[in-house]
Amino acid sequence: MPPAERALRHVEARSTGTPLDRALRVTLHFHPERVVAALAGTGRYVSQFVTGTGNGGLTAFAGGDRWRWESRIFGGAYDEASPEDRPVYGGLNFRLSPYGAAPRFGSAHLRLTEGALARTTFCYPDSFLEPEHFGTADRMALIGIARADDRDPLDDYVEAHVHGPVSVEADVEALVLDPGYRGTAVEEAASRLPCAVEWHPGFRLHVDQLRGHGDYRGQRYVDLGLEIAVDGVLTPKVLGDVRDRHDPQDLKKVWHLLARFGR
After folding, report:
1. Prediction pTM value
2. Per its UniProt record, what Pfam families does this chain match (predicted)?
3. Cα separation of 159 and 139, whole Å?
4. 56 — pLDDT class (breaks 50, 70, 90)
């Protein structure tokens, strides 16, 4: 039995609830500067095990935390699998947000088709917290659990794991971008994708608002945000433009400030 099928069966056996509304969609989040060009080149969205990069913890290697979490959630189905065969991560957009389910992981997202739901598993909360609540499209109790929880708005997503290859042409309804990327190389690369390109309302945080949130991720990240702001404003593109001049883990914390307080 292929690893993806074994993983789906394992999670389904641990899941409870009724079928989810098939109008809901899974969204896959990322920062678009490099990813959109890669999507245009390969036509596939791949996991951190393939790219070696990500917007969460960078532990996708044999024996790393991501490997261990997947082994636990999927009953060891992927323990011997190649990186290309592993699932990709996103969230279930049950709140119908124009920003997608989990903007913590990037200002851009792919909105997947209804058909992708059949090969997606879910958990709540995030897999790094070693959750005990799981779901599939046919057994979905997680939405009620998430709505009853009291987590930070960046952390209240139902995590999704899409098993099997994710093709832009076959599996994506739309790429959704921040309007700050209009007229940029990101929009040009997006125009070459075989899916719709849409724009959400945008992330924008003025430095006067930023200064009041030193207790959120730490004052050093507020100070970094003040340093890199352009004309007193932080946007996803402003962060993208300095990605090669700062530690990506530091920029990730600045992004959290923008994503949390700049909608």
Report:
1. 0.95
2. DUF3626
3. 15
4. low
How far apart are alpha carbons 12 and 134 in whole angstroms? 8
Domain range enclosing 213: 205-262
In residues, how long is the chain?
A: 263
Q: Are residues 193 and 253 in the same domain?
A: no
Q: What is the pLDDT of residues 107-163, one digit of tens each?
A: 999 999 999 999 999 999 999 999 999 999 999 999 999 999 999 999 999 999 999
Q: How many CA atoms lie within 13 A of 49 on its CB side?
A: 21
Do 106 and 128 sit in the same domain of this protein?
Answer: yes
Cα distances from 259 to residues 90, 108, 253, in angstroms, run: 16, 11, 10
Structure tokens at 3: 């690893």
183 contacts: CB under 8 Å, gap ≥ 6: none
Q: Which two tokens stand for residue 81?
A: 């699998």
Kindly report, residue by residue over 196-253, the tens digit of the pLDDT: 999 999 999 999 999 999 999 999 999 999 999 999 999 999 999 999 999 999 999 9
